[in-house]
Amino acid sequence: MTIRNPIAIGLVFCLIVVVLVGQWLFRPVPLATLNVGSSIRTLVFSPHGQIIIGSEEDVQVWDTATYQHRTTLIDAIGPAAYTSSHDFIAAEKTTTDQDTSHVIGIWDARTGTLVDQLVGHTDTLTALAFSPDGSVLASASVDHTIRTWRMSDMRQLYALNRQAPPATALSFSPDSQTLATSGTDLTIRLWNVRDRSQQRTLNSEIDVSNSLAWSPDGHTLAAVVSRTASRSGIHATVISFIKSQNFLIG
After folding, report:
1. Does residue 182 sit within a domain?
2. Is the pLDDT of residue 151 over 90?
3. What is the rounded CA–CA span in Å between residue 87 and residue 84?
4. 78 occurs within a structural domain
5. Is residue 102 part of a domain?
């Protein structure tokens, strides 16, 4: 249909101009660019004005006010986790020749000093997560186990043995009572932190879950997943949201 009314043509033109100008004015503008130097595996903000970046080569701490590099944790590589309760950073500790030792190092986030080492895993770490209350650290490894650690005395609480492929993502619920885990076996598992029982198993069409996150009210679990279409073979990364009625633990 041809628009013959000059007023209508003018309105359409103005609308197009407004949309284009709006997109330009409200386009995302980077505040800063941080030169990390290697592939990032973890990115965490702390309430003390820090950005903790875990990469394949090291773990760095940056200042959020100035975007300046504060410190690099000695002999640490990602994945990394942070807890504000103790102001600790957990990451895999390396040996002097940069080989992984399968030991979890605990560093003071403000000073970068190594505080303790947690020994138990027998292969490379794949994920780390602190409970929101800071009392427990969960760790996953290629050794097919998920281990939990009590932060008050840096002791292992227990190990969850998995027959499935190693977990690649860990996330505690807001009340610190449930641990969600996922991996490459198309399954998200929910564990009761207190008695280590597996409460739910969520099977899905995902190929790999790279990250898990709970909503603040604990009613929704989000999973960043990789999915491949069976017919076209097209690979995509999407975010799936799972509501509480599917996995509420009572």
Report:
1. yes
2. yes
3. 5
4. yes
5. yes
Contact 186, 169 (CB under 8 A): no
**What type of residue sits at position 50?**
Q
- pLDDT above 80: residue 163: no
Grade residue 249 by pLDDT with cuts at 50, 70 and 90: very low
- Give the count of domains, the chain: 1
Most confident by average pLDDT, 15-29, 61-75, 111-125, 178-192: 111-125
CA distance 224 to 226: 7
CA distances from 19 to 24, 25, 27 (A): 9, 10, 12
Quote the DSSP letter at residue 94: E
**Burial (0-12, 13-18, 19+ Cβ within 10 Å), 135:** middle
Q: Which two tokens stand for residue 204?
A: 């899905």
The answer to whether position 17 is within a domain reads no
Q: What one-letter code names the amino acid at 243?
A: K
What is each CA distance from 203 to 34, 170, 183, 222, in whole angstroms? 38, 16, 11, 14
pTM of the full structure: 0.77
Structural domain harbouring 155: 36-246
The CB-side HSE value for 38 (13 A sphere, CA atoms) comes to: 13
